[in-house]
Design goal:
- The chain has 630 residues and is of the alpha+beta class.
- It has 4 domains: 140 residues, Alpha Horseshoe (Serine Threonine Protein Phosphatase 5, Tetratricopeptide repeat); 276 residues, Neuraminidase; 86 residues, Immunoglobulin-like; 114 residues, 60s Ribosomal Protein L30, Chain: A (2-Layer Sandwich).
- 23% of the residues lie in helices and 30% in strands.
- The strands form 8 sheets. Strands 6, 7, 8, 9 and 10 form a 5-stranded antiparallel β-sheet that branches.
- The longest helix has 21 residues.
């Protein structure tokens, strides 16, 4: 109901000598009916007043407020526009209200006209800068509609109930999503998780309900690590208080669970106490390696206004999460932010908001992280991806273009999952997928180890621990980028592999780790020397850094042996191989390794691994070998 105070203001406007008394009487009747909570009678009376006096501006304004009260927003907006035309003196006070209603019903052209008329008045300006920017954006977006093919998913994922918040596996052919389940009898609706898989025809089919997690309460907004073996989700207090079988800290909390490989289900969930507070935490998103989490934290300020922002946290080496930090103000607006989703490229973040210039309701936006760790300004994905209604639940496939989101465009009130191809301005970077298994080279048993992907400058692109049950890991990295895969675990020699070209977007690799024991040999093929020299290149030396780390974590003694190819004379090759071995030793000493644990020798070309008749063979023969000798 409209506040009585605003009605009193309207009553004070009745002292208008030019308004017929009959119209003033009908106006007063309308006010009385409304104060008696008979809105429809109030509308009939104000219509009578306007029929008697069509130029009665205050009557048109009262009519607008009455119609807004019964959600007839289009008619309410038209009434304000009429009031401003018949009584221009009302413009300064009521123009912004008219702009807001016109924008709310999607009449962007009329709102733009009203805004333009106001700009001609030096005594008026729109106090709501976001509203003004949104009107200008929406009017332009409608006239420049994107060529987007939107279609609901084929298969049985979409039902007569609402489906939303999809969470994609890194392979792009599996997902976990939320479905609203209607209550039986007097029971309230609830939310449950389901898993679905895409077949060879591109159709999506439900494979199972996550019964090990689903309860009679609400489970919502799942987030999975790229391999699906780590799941974070939201659970909230029930109406009778508490979290059911769970325990929580605020009205909604984040919970975590891990995939049990041998049992084929998720483990018992635990509260993510490091991220939760007495506020409302929800809608998580995990980076593909599980190292970063983005989520929504919400609370009400002292005035009762809802503050709903995106926060970010990093998983530390000890397995704990860092203190969540709020994303910058140019992303977190004075409005509401929802559903942050980080793409597998690790630097493209999608989210929904009603606080930036948009089409109305919640719009979808994209921001990108630059090489200096700075987020770009939010970019609206445009129309018809965004509409007058709320858009949410966006997920983008590893190719950076194909996307899913939830929409009720087909049946209002029934959210389904739809797919489309993002325009260029909203696309992410396509990624490669590296799947593998880490195992003990002597007995073939799986190893839980740190697996990381670096760029050629040594910057981390992805980092994950392989699963100790089967040694599996899954990581992603930009499609066109040369990378280094490194695997390490105390008690073992490390593994390092440089890749500069790729034949497939999804690769499978077996990673054997040799125990750190006498006789174990590690071949280094990526030690960078200056051309035809024994001096180390000033570039990032991934293998030598890992070797120094391994040495400092143990007390072994090693022999460093240099090898050359078969080109050149024997004496020169021997001297070059020994000099290179010494350069490696000196590097390790500079990194803090005791020189007494390092022996060196040069073998020249005496122990080739391959033929010297081909460039590929000679490249294999140019190497540095590390042997554990004590």
């Amino acid at each position: 109901m409209m506040l009585v105070g605003s009605l009193m203001v309207c009553c004070a406007l009745l002292a208008q000598g030019k308004i017929p008394k009959k119209a003033q009487k009908r106006y007063a009747e309308s006010v009385n009916y409304y104060m008696a909570q008979d809105v429809h009678a109030a509308i009939r009376s104000i219509d009578d007043a306007i029929e008697v006096a069509p130029g009665y501006g205050e009557a048109w304004l009262l009519r607008a407020e009455l119609l807004e009260d019964v959600s007839m927003l289009q008619e309410a907006a038209e009434s304000i526009v009429t009031a401003l035309k018949v009584q221009p003196g009302l413009s300064k006070k009521w123009r912004e209200k008219g702009l807001r209603l016109l924008f709310q019903v999607g009449d962007y052209d009329e709102a733009l006209n009203l805004l333009h008329e106001g700009s001609l008045n030096p005594d008026w300006r729109c106090k709501d800068s976001v509203l003004e920017a949104s009107i200008r954006f929406a009017a332009h977006a409608i006239k420049n509609e994107l060529e987007i093919d939107l279609s609901p998913l084929i298969g049985d994922v979409n039902s007569n109930f609402s489906e939303y918040y999809p969470a994609l596996f890194l392979t792009g052919d599996r997902m976990i999503f939320t479905r609203e389940i209607p209550g039986m009898g007097q029971s309230l609706d609830q939310e449950d998780f389901f898993e679905a898989q895409c077949d060879l025809n591109g159709d999506w089919h439900v494979t199972r309900a996550l019964d090990e997690i689903n309860t009679a309460g609400n489970e919502g907004a799942p987030a999975i690590r790229g391999d699906g073996r780590y799941l974070v989700f939201t659970a909230c207090e029930t109406l009778i208080g508490g979290y059911g079988k769970r325990s929580g800290k605020g009205s909604c909390d984040l919970f975590e669970t891990r995939w049990l490989v041998n049992e084929g289900k998720y483990d018992i969930e635990e509260n993510l106490t490091e991220l939760n507070s007495n506020k409302w935490e929800s809608q998580p998103s995990l980076s593909s390696d599980g190292r970063w989490i983005f989520f929504i934290r919400a609370e009400r300020d002292r005035s009762g206004n809802l503050i709903q922002d995106i926060y970010q946290s990093e998983k530390l080496d000890d397995g704990s999460w860092s203190k969540p930090r709020r994303l910058p103000d140019h992303i977190n607006s004075p409005g509401r932010e929802e559903n942050p989703v980080i793409h597998p490229d690790g630097k493209t973040l999608y989210f929904a908001s009603d606080g930036h210039a948009g089409m109305g309701g919640m719009d979808l936006y994209v921001v990108k992280l630059d090489d200096n760790g700075v987020w770009s300004n939010p970019l609206n994905l445009g129309y018809p991806i965004n509409t007058l209604a709320d858009e949410n639940s966006l997920q983008v496939f590893p190719d950076g273009r194909l996307a899913l989101f939830a929409s009720d465009r087909r049946r209002p009130g029934d959210l389904d999952l739809w797919k489309f191809v993002l325009p260029d301005h909203g696309s992410a970077e396509e990624v490669n997928i590296w799947q593998g298994r880490v195992y003990n080279a002597k007995n073939n048993k799986p190893i839980e180890a740190v697996v990381q992907i670096l760029d050629l400058d040594g910057n981390h692109i992805g980092r994950q621990r392989s699963d100790g049950t089967d040694g599996a890991f899954t990581l992603s990295f930009p499609l066109e980028e040369a990378v280094i895969l490194q695997v390490e675990q105390p008690g073992y020699l490390f593994y390092s592999q440089r890749e500069e070209s790729f034949d497939a977007k999804e690769m499978v690799i077996e990673v054997p780790l040799w125990p750190l024991e006498i006789g174990s040999i590690l071949i280094l093929t990526d030690v960078l020397f200056e051309t035809s020299s024994s001096s180390l290149a000033p570039d990032f030396q991934p293998e030598l850094e890992q070797l120094a780390k391994t040495m400092k974590q143990s007390d072994v003694k090693i022999r460093i042996t240099g090898h050359t190819d078969g080109l050149g004379n024997t004496r020169d090759n021997l001297e070059l191989s020994l000099s290179r071995a010494r350069s490696v030793r000196d590097y390790l000493v500079e990194m803090g390794v005791d020189q007494s644990r390092l022996e060196v020798e040069g073998m020249g070309a005496r122990r080739p691994l391959a033929t010297n008749d081909t460039p590929e063979g000679r490249a294999r023969n140019r190497r540095t070998e590390i042997e554990v000798i004590e």
